[in-house]
Amino acid sequence: MNRTLILRTGLPFALLLLANGAAAQDELIERGRTVYADWCAICHAPGEGATRILEERYQGALPAVVDQRTDLAEELIVARVRTWVAPQMPPFRQSEVSDADLEAVIAYLKRNDE
Ligand code: HEC
């Protein structure tokens, strides 16, 4: 392959790799959206119990609906999902929310972060 050909094919190839990465991230986010709908929305959808508790706590300073937040740290999400931080939110077993599901739900919850 001569230099011109490398220069010609290099950029499209790099762009293709980037596009693949973005597509994989979109897929992860979509999986996380499903995990959230299946396991989290029952308490965290608008009007549900957790939302009402968080509304009371944040008084409008932060969105009470967890999937509208843009400030959630990965460590906080992991702690909430895997350990019993607050009495009203039991942790989830691997058989319910697997590590792969957890990674997906983190990607979903952080999709709009700065
Ligand atoms: C049985 C109800 C219930 C389910 C199901 C539930 N949660 Fe929660 N969650 C709560 C409650 C209630 C709180 C607030 C309690 C507190 O902090 O005192 C909370 C808090 C949180 C917080 C912390 C918000 C903050 O500002 O501190 C995160 C993050 C969270 N939940 C994520 C999730 C995710 C992700 C799922 C699904 C895998 C989930 N929750 C499922 C009830 C639930």
Structure characterization notes:
The protein is mainly α and about 110 residues long. It has one domain: Orthogonal Bundle (Cytochrome Bc1 Complex, Chain D, domain 2), CATH 1.10.760. Helices cover about 60% and strands about 0% of the residues. The protein has helices spanning about 5-40, 40-45, 50-60, 75-80, 100-110. It is elongated. The chain starts with a helix and ends in a 5-residue tail after the last helix. Heme C binds near residues 53, 54, 80 and 89.
Layout of SSEs?
Blueprint lengths: L2 H37 L1 H4 L4 H10 L15 H9 L16 H11 L5
Helix pairs in contact: 1-5
The protein binds heme C.
TL;DR?
The chain has 114 residues and is mainly α. It has helices spanning 3-39, 41-44, 49-58, 74-82, 99-109.
